[in-house]
Design brief:
The complex is a heterodimer of chains A (about 300) and B (about 260).
Chain A lengths: L1 E4 L4 E4 H18 L4 H11 L3 H25 L5 H27 L3 H32 L13 H4 L5 E3 L4 E3 L2 H17 L4 H12 L3 H25 L6 H24 L2 H24 L6 E5 L1
Chain B lengths: L1 H18 L10 E6 L3 E4 L6 E10 L11 E7 L2 E12 L2 E14 L2 E5 L3 H4 L2 H7 L16 H17 L3 E4 L3 E4 L3 E8 L6 E11 L2 E14 L1 H12 L1 H25 L1
The chains are: A mainly alpha (about 300), B alpha+beta (about 260).
Chain lengths: ~300, ~260
């Protein structure tokens, strides 16, 4: 089924795009990550211009997180207070990210920076998650009841002034910590065309020490609002949001997200984390490989 | 095919009419070009199209050109200023290093000829009329050394050739009875919209004896045009619409699945 994309200026196989959206949606519901780290590179690989791919992926992640947020809200899995602080940080971050994006694009190094960011972030986070998940799986195999993981935040966090109570997360920490986290993730959203969930989820677990039950829902809540900001920013500056492409992706991803959230309840959290770690590491390795080998296209064209 | 034949006949009749008063005088032949579509409509389901460029050449002295001639057709899309970047291996990874700017690079460029161009004209003439991918005039910006410029030009041509945007077919023009010529050139779906020009050259003994231009308007229509204009003129509203669409679809899916 050929569909012509009016902003991307080319025709694509519509079913393939819907399937791609579906895959992203399942990941989104299952792990609480946006899945942008998979869709954006795959769309670029398919031949969609990078800016259009990143902008439309942001729109699509919005849809996938809406259904995710609704599903988690019913289970009381969203800490609105924590999420709200992160959203404010995320909006500041995406503004900063837009400035950085423009600067890097003007010197022609945006692609390299994005690739290096992918390798470093995905590589280190994937590695950490893999180690952690593997260790806890092995412990439960031995039959020894896994020791209740001491849930505590990073010592640096307690050094920050002005503490707030976050009841749902079970935390009494300074709002500056989630704010800074939000800013960092917002910058990444604008730069890499990703929701940032794959950074947010581990950071909320291991740095903030939030209770696991609200991590995924709150992360989706933050992603929802930051991707809305990113879509608006793209619509206003790059004008690269392709509504037809976004609608196709959405069709797949909103259904996928529902399936994902249902699946998430059925699997052991440790196994889920192991699977996510494997996917993240795989993408990181692919990117590293891409940086090292001679690229197919030595020359690239940028409109002036 | 019947339609093409009919059109060819019309062209011939017109050519005969124009050519008639020239009787006896030593004049250059007349070229009458036509394009199968004056307008290419880009709408939903557009997967590219094939243009048929055809026409007739008439010698004023008789009904058909006496000596053999060759036809070269050049179809050019709108030009835009671009910067071409070159990747280089630095410290183990491939990054963009050098770059050069071109003030007017055509977004689409196709050449079809009845024989290989180097056997029809010399390089100088080919360069003047942009006959062939080696002779596209890109107007490089700034002063850079010719060798480097040639490297960037060939890099650009190679890239766009593989994207299907630049092409040449040395056997793409067929001439029938020494009077009618026709060439088929395909436009892929990723072409930029705008005004395309089809230039036809008749060449004898390495000299361009006649040339003519026909325009093709490639434009978006209907919903596709609406989306493009809307995203540019009302970007705030467009962005809000995109956000609403995604929130609504997400919400709807949640509702529908809750019923399951």
């Amino acid at each position: 089924m050929d569909v012509y994309l009016p902003i991307a200026n080319l025709s694509v196989n519509g079913l393939l795009i819907v399937a791609l959206g579906g895959l992203t949606g399942i990941l989104s519901g299952l792990f609480g990550v946006g899945g942008g780290f998979l869709t954006t590179p795959l769309m670029i690989f398919y031949g969609i211009p990078p800016t259009v791919a990143a902008a439309s992926a942001a729109t699509q992640v919005t849809g996938a997180s809406v259904s995710g947020v609704f599903a988690h809200r019913q289970r009381g899995g969203v800490d609105y207070r924590m999420g709200g602080v992160m959203v404010v940080g995320g909006m500041i971050g995406s503004g900063l990210g837009a400035l950085l994006f423009r600067f890097l694009a003007s010197v022609g190094q945006i692609d390299t920076v994005i690739n290096i960011l992918y390798v470093l972030l995905l590589g280190s986070i994937g590695g950490l998650m893999m180690r952690e998940a593997w260790a806890s799986i092995r412990q439960s195999r031995k039959g020894v009841p896994p020791p209740a993981r001491k849930r505590r935040h990073h010592p640096l966090i307690s050094a920050l002034p002005m503490r707030w109570r976050f009841y749902k997360s079970g935390l009494y920490i300074s709002p500056l910590a989630p704010l800074i986290l939000g800013v960092l993730v917002g910058m990444l959203t604008m730069l890499m065309g990703v929701g940032g969930g794959f950074i947010l989820v581990p950071a909320m677990l291991y740095i903030l020490g939030m209770s696991a039950g609200v991590v995924v829902g709150t992360s989706l809540f933050q992603i929802l609002f930051v991707t809305i900001t990113t879509t608006m920013m793209h619509a206003l500056t790059t004008q690269a949001v392709d509504i037809v492409l976004a609608a196709l992706l959405l069709l797949g991803s909103v259904s996928g997200a529902q399936i994902g959230t249902r699946l998430a309840v059925k699997f052991k959290p440790d196994l889920l984390r192991l699977a996510l770690a494997a996917i993240v590491l795989l993408v990181a390795l692919r990117m590293l490989y891409g940086l090292g080998v001679r690229p197919d296209e030595i020359y690239s064209v940028a409109q002036l | 095919m019947a339609r093409v034949f009919l059109m060819s006949a019309a062209v011939l009749a017109f050519a005969a009419l124009v050519g008639a008063p020239a009787g006896g005088q030593e004049r250059d032949p007349i070229l009458v070009p036509a394009v199968s579509q004056q307008e290419v409509q880009v709408r939903q389901g557009f997967t590219g199209t094939e243009l048929l460029l055809f026409g007739a050449i008439l010698d004023p002295r008789g009904s058909r050109a006496a000596d053999g001639y060759d036809i070269v057709v050049v179809l050019k899309g709108p030009a835009e200023p671009i910067r071409v970047r070159e990747k280089e291996r630095v410290g183990g990874i491939w990054i963009n290093s050098e770059s050069t700017a071109f003030r007017s690079a055509p977004t689409y460029f196709a050449v079809a000829s009845s024989r290989p161009i180097d056997t029809i004209v010399d390089a100088r003439t080919a360069a003047i009329y942009e006959l062939g991918l080696d002779f596209i005039q890109l107007s490089p910006g700034g002063a850079i050394d010719p060798e480097e410029q040639a490297r960037f030009t060939s890099g650009l041509v190679d890239l766009r050739q593989r994207q299907g945007l630049y092409k040449q077919d040395m056997d793409g023009v067929t001439i029938e009875e020494g009077v009618l010529y026709k060439a088929r050139i395909s436009l892929p779906s990723n072409v930029l919209t705008g005004l395309y020009t089809a230039e036809t050259f008749a060449i004898t003994d390495g000299r361009v004896i006649a040339s003519a231009v026909a325009d093709v308007d490639v434009r978006k229509v209907g919903f596709e045009r609406f989306v493009e204009v809307f995203s540019q003129s009302q970007s705030l509203l467009y962005g809000l619409l995109a956000v609403c669409l995604s929130v609504f679809m997400g919400w709807l899916a949640g509702r529908l699945f809750a019923l399951v």
